[in-house]
Amino acid sequence: MITDETKAELREIAARYPQPRSGLLPMLHLVQSAEGRVTAEGIEACAEILGITAAEVSGVATFYTMYKRRPMGDYHVGVCTNTLCAVMGGDVIFERLKEHLGVGNDETTEDGKITLEHVECNAACDYAPVVMVNWEFMDNQTPESATRLVDDLRAGSEVRSTRGPRICTWREAERVLAGFDDGLADEGPAAGPATLVGLEIARENGWKAPEGGQQ
Amino acid sequence: MTNVLTPVLSDNWDADRPWTRESYERSGGYQALDTALRMQPDEIVALVKESGLRGRGGAGFATGMKWGFIPKDNPNPKYLVVNADESEPGTCKDIPLMMASPHTLVEGVVISSYAIGAHTAFIYVRGEVLHVIRRLRAAVQEAYAAGHLGKNIHGTGYDLDVIVHAGAGAYICGEETALLDSLEGRRGQPRLRPPFPAVAGLYASPTVINNVESIATVPSIVRNGAEWFGSMGTEKSKGMTLYSLSGHVTRPGQYEAPLGITLRELLDLAGGVRNGHKLKFWTPGGSSTPLLTDEHLDVPLDYEGVGAAGSMLGTKALQIFDETTCVVRAVLRWTEFYKHESCGKCTPCREGTWWLVQVLARLEKGQGSEEDLDQLLDQCDNILGRSFCALADGAVSPIDSSLKFFRDEYVEHLRQGGCPFDPMASTLFSPVGATA
Ligand SMILES: Cc1cc2nc3c(=O)[nH]c(=O)nc-3n(C[C@H](O)[C@H](O)[C@H](O)COP(=O)(O)O)c2cc1C
Ligand code: SF4
Ligand code: FES
């Protein structure tokens, strides 16, 4: 249900922008956080606040892959199967997880914990094969590490992103995407090993950019 | 001694908590902003022009020139929009930059906005990178608290607001005009040009759109000068940049080097192609840039060099594939991506990418005949240059180039009635030295 409090937050999002309609994408993220998916009621609420039709909002919601019409599990597990990850093992990981969880693409386990999906390149190719959990990085996966990962998630054990904080729920993640902080920015490392590899080689060799001229 | 690598953008990534303002300022951060605010906006535009900085989002358009297109007499507000959609397959440089040092981007945003006369700037980040969004938001808040953003920045009377905006999953929103529609709360579909964004962009107002790395480079140019920047790189492709190595290499990752370094040199640093294997094909700048092979190891990786080799520098996303990889499988997967991401606005792309997938899927299974290969090229001809935006041109790149270099491998699929490769051999889980 879209509560008055959620409506107030939807208005707050719209008010951040020079033109309120710019808030629609984050507003739909908030709807997903409140409802577990994009619902008809959520669409109505956005339409009413922005003074546009429900059909217009719906047209936007269906365009973007992060918006879901079916109820989502607590954890969205996205296996990258774009070419590079696929070739390096993403296809094998995805097959293994389908089998292990007994679900197909874009389906949720019966306990409502995990929604499995294959995703496109997530800008982490130097950590291939990559799995995303609620859009946090789980770098350098193997079929074994990925099955352990989903087992841990289902068991409710604490799971940490390899380049990020402890994993929150999908609804909590959607709230962050809507622009409401969860205070976790300082958790996790600055970078993973691959990010730093060139810098380390430069340091070892004493290589530097030229000295600056001005100032 | 030559400096093979030249860390500037990445220089503070190994500092203690480099994402915080305190750490960033300790390494000299926000000093360039002070310098910039003492200059006239036009002087900054001139400086960036003189530096030769070219956009790092793929097309390599001169950044200073783009800024110069913003009309002075237009009464509407001006906007800066940072393209942080990073979704081109293989591309993975902006995300680690924003994760490790978001203030580098924020400082660049303030300087660039000041230069073009904007008082509102947006950072449009793809939604699928939660922690990067947290770090960016935290950096923006810290910058407000320290007076680097908001009203009367550094006491100069200049005001700027920055909004971090999360997208919702659509590759096409990286295309700058689709991004603008998306940022206006619509479906992300490209706009007809002209009018160009510099004249009628966000809210039909003058707008500059630049890639994350382009904007993040600006503080270093202000700090060190145009000559310094031009002392790195080649004549027409100046400065340092982030090269991202991924795939079958020993040490994948980010390598910041002067433009014009070669893949041979980068592979040397990265420990070569993974043990026991050899290079088969690679992309110089993401999947939309035509494939190259081991013939091209000495091509200077700058705009001119890669162009002369028949490809494009693109995003400098060097995806490396060794001999265990089936090129038909790789190309089919990329083509499925373009089909999925086609926004549907124009027929050659919407229908064409669908047909390309049909034909390639059959070929991968070893069905069809050699005539299908010519049909595939024909289809590419009907798409390339006939579509509304560059997504479709990118979609034909892997097909065209793979047929140029690996036609035999397609034929081999037909001859064997299936794929001659063992897909396990290309994974990281296969024993070292395993062959197809
Ligand atoms: C399909 C498509 C996707 C694109 N994706 C991105 C992207 O994710 N990030 C980016 O900076 N530029 C992307 N571009 C290029 C932008 O349209 C634009 O040229 C760029 O943001 C300009 O910034 P620059 O001049 O600083 O490079 C894309 C272009 C196309 C056609
Ligand atoms: S070329 Fe493809 S992505 Fe671009 S406008 Fe046409 S349909 Fe949309
Ligand atoms: S291909 Fe998987 S993250 Fe890029």
Q: What attributes characterize this protein structure?
A:
heterodimer; A: 215 residues; alpha+beta; Arc Repressor Mutant, subunit A; Glutaredoxin; five-stranded mixed β-sheet; 8 helices; globular; B: 436 residues; alpha/beta; Rossmann fold; Ubiquitin-like (UB roll); de novo design (two linked rop proteins); four-stranded parallel β-sheet; 9 strands; 43% helix; 11% strand; binds flavin mononucleotide; binds iron/sulfur cluster; binds FE2/S2 (inorganic) cluster
What's the shape of chain A?
Answer: globular
> What's the helix-strand series of chain B?
HHHHEHHEHEHHEHHEEHEEHEHHHH
Q: What is the quaternary state of this protein? A: heterodimer
**Largest sheet report of chain B:** 5 strands, mixed
Average per-residue pLDDT of chain B, rounded, comes to 97
**Order of adjacent strands in the largest pleated sheet of chain A:** 2-3-1-4-5
| Count of helical regions of chain A | 8
The helix content of chain B is: 40-55%
- The CATH architecture term of the largest domain in chain A is 3-Layer(aba) Sandwich
Biggest interface found: A-B, 89 and 103 residues
Low-confidence blocks of residues of chain B: none
Fraction of residues in β-strands of chain A: 5-15%
Number of domains of chain B: 3
Domain module count of chain A: 2
The CATH topology assignment of the largest domain in chain A is Glutaredoxin
